[in-house]
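Handout, section 4.2: multi-component inputs.
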Amino acid sequence: MPSPNEILAELKKVRYPGFTRDVVSFGVIKDIEVAYSGVTVSLTAISAKQEVIDKIVADVKATVAAMPGVPSVNVTVEAPPQAAARAPSATAQRRAIPGVKHIVAVASGKGGVGKSTVAVNLALAMRALGWRVGLMDADVYGPSVAMMVGVDKAVSLTPERRMIPLERFGIRYISMALFINDETAVIWRGPMVTKLETEFLFNVEWGELDCLVLDLPPGTGDAQLTITQRVELAGGVIVTTPQEIALLDVKRGVAMFDEVHVPVLGVVENMSYYLCRKCNHRHDIFSHGGGSRLAESLHVPFLGEIPLLRELREGGDKAQPIVAANPSHPVSEAFKSIATRVIEQLDQPKH
Ligand SMILES: Nc1ncnc2c1ncn2[C@@H]1O[C@H](COP(=O)(O)OP(=O)(O)O)[C@@H](O)[C@H]1O
Ligand SMILES: [Mg+2]
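Output:
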């Protein structure tokens, strides 16, 4: 009969459905008991979806049953899916940041859809609505927020060696990228990045904030999942573009947040249509309305659409984000209405 440790090692080969991470590192395995009559594996159901739980149970069972010397396998699932959000393994490592009321993660299925543009302008729009806002660039390898906001300078430390965020346009801003030079970049590379990054988040002297906006790395894989598991998130915002392929990415984004019981606050469709500067007319380049239809079918709110607009790119390049540089522009108004929809959901009393 194998030992519990040998069984645990074997279970590291079982992948969590839909992710490359294994069920052990995911925190699903609660306990392994080896008795004369057989092996009992207790699982904590961190997924709300029955089909995910069923698949894990079946895979765990088959994996342990295939080990030599195991007469029988019994797999139990501890918490019912509804109570799973409070199950210890799903939340044990999840931490709030003292002084920060809400943390919102901005995610996208892939890079280049305007996630950082939306994160920056959403943060500024929340600020314009009177909230105290922080912005954390969690995209170490494509740290565009520094350039977009124009705060690429040295960060000072408190006597306790906590990092003091930089400030611009009335929002506090930090990025791990500000600490990475060419030499350290080599050390930072690899799966440790997200782990270190989440630790990093807790070492920033944010002060009192109503909302901290996280610009997540693009994608909805394991790296992003790590952050969503470690930080006490109030919700996620998913940025997409209207093309079919990008809309598929939204489904993955929603699935990722669902998996860790983080509510999806909504979908933003960026580069939704072309706003002509000369005639001020709207031209639909891609088939229009995909974002809102998809949001409806996935039962998540549609937060709004942002046009393809040269000022948005130029504003990003020149560290003059549109909401700060031109607050009365229709696109700035659009960002404010997106921010209002986000704030409305965050202000809901917690139950
Ligand atoms: N609505 C838009 N109109 C015009 N340019 C945009 C728009 N959204 C983003 N961009 C530009 O597209 C590029 C990618 O946007 P970015 O926000 O960096 O995407 P991501 O963070 O998803 O990689 C940037 O040059 C940005 O200025
Ligand atoms: Mg980006």
